Hints:
The structure holds two protein chains of two kinds. Chain A is of the alpha+beta class. Chain A contains twelve helices and 14 strands. Chain A has helices at about 15-25, 35-40, 75-80, 85-90, 90-95, 105-110, 110-115, 125-130, 150, 225-230, 240-245, 260-280, and strands at about 5-10, 25-30, 50, 60-65, 70, 135-140, 140-145, 150-155, 155-160, 165-170, 180-185, 195-205, 205-215, 225. In chain A, a hairpin with a 3-residue loop joins strand 4 (about 60-65) and strand 5. Chain B folds into two domains: about 5-75, Beta-grasp domain (Ubiquitin-like (UB roll), Roll); about 85-160, [2Fe-2S]-binding domain (DNA polymerase, domain 1), CATH 1.10.150. In chain B, a hairpin with a 2-residue loop joins strand 3 (about 50) and strand 4. The longest helix of chain B is centred in the last third of the chain and has 20 residues, at about 140-160. Chain B is globular, with a radius of gyration of 16 Å. The model of chain B has no long low-confidence stretch (mean pLDDT about 95).
Amino acid sequence: xxxxxxxxxxxxxxxxxxxxxxxxxxxxxxxxxxxxxxxxxxxxxxxxxxxxxxxxxxxxxxxxxxxxxxxxxxxxxxxxxxxxxxxxxxxxxxxxxxxxxxxxxxxxxxxxxxxxxxxxxxxxxxxxxxxxxxxxxxxxxxxxxxxxxxxxxxxxxxxxxxxxxxxxxxxxxxxxxxxxxxxxxxxxxxxxxxxxxxxxxxxxxxxxxxxxxxxxxxxxxxxxxxxxxxxxxxxxxxxxxxxxxxxxxxxxxxxxxxxxxxxxxxxxxxxxxxxxxxxxxxxx
Amino acid sequence: xxxxxxxxxxxxxxxxxxxxxxxxxxxxxxxxxxxxxxxxxxxxxxxxxxxxxxxxxxxxxxxxxxxxxxxxxxxxxxxxxxxxxxxxxxxxxxxxxxxxxxxxxxxxxxxxxxxxxxxxxxxxxxxxxxxxxxxxxxxxxxxxxxxxxxxxxxxxxxxx
Lengths: 284, 160
């Protein structure tokens, strides 16, 4: 299908982009377009204007900032995958990004676009939530920071205001002792996650010192499996870990769709969380 | 309407386009490049894959205006002097198509895959082509064709 008509402006600067957005509440940001353009084609969205931020230099690149990595909102999935600092210091991001769609989509789709889109089946939100990243947003009023725990508000709804543009995301380098794994269950090669689990585990003297677990598609937003995280603290690897992961779906409200019903998603969350923890802890 | 400049298969064009015009429609309906088909319309099937500044993209999911100033190569721009590109020839030799609808996208995705990995394994080919669907062949001959195309292209580089 052909999208409905809209106006188009390619923003020449970040300032121009936020002005355009503030002036028209039905305007929408166009990043790589890999989620938005199919929505326009299916006539599920009718923006009055697209403000193209795809070429803004302020939003591009992956930057090593010492204690953290800053990924510009317009860095493509392909750039993120090729980034040395992401692979070295945020391997969980690289692992999850490698499962996003397919190579051609990863050439266009952006890190920031897929986060701001807030699709609960998207892989990156749970990862940024688990890593406790910080979103940096710009509006006419200036710049503000939004912790990951506050960024994902509801189904396809972020904490970004109507006149606000995501500049990028700060991801802390967790440092030595941490292991990571993204475990995704989906039915076909390029499809969205039925359920996904992003795990970061720190071990010391064999025991789990700290675990962070983000769940994909177990509710309208990504969620942390807090009950499991708490139970794992101080635990030795073994049968207890499997039992702790039985609580992975606690407090979640998984959706029902043609891929899975809620009870099956709860089952997946338990199984995939156990797998993710074993891999992240380095003893699969 | 926005004006845009675009190079397609080595030829420069300047066009006035509606913002909602998709790259694939620009290619097919304005520039006559009907070698690139429209498949699923929603970036699943990969039939419309072209190279945009040297990287594979699904041209149904790119606005024409987003390609302003860019260089596009379609399946029609691969051959030279009346002969097929080695990857096209390999698809022909290995019978890697039946209805042929997915073939332009398959060939473009295969060539893109070789940028990173000039000698891909069967697994790497299957992964590299995960965004391209074929409903006829069962993929076996496509994978064989990509292996063969890669070898031919490697050969071409070594002898040139």
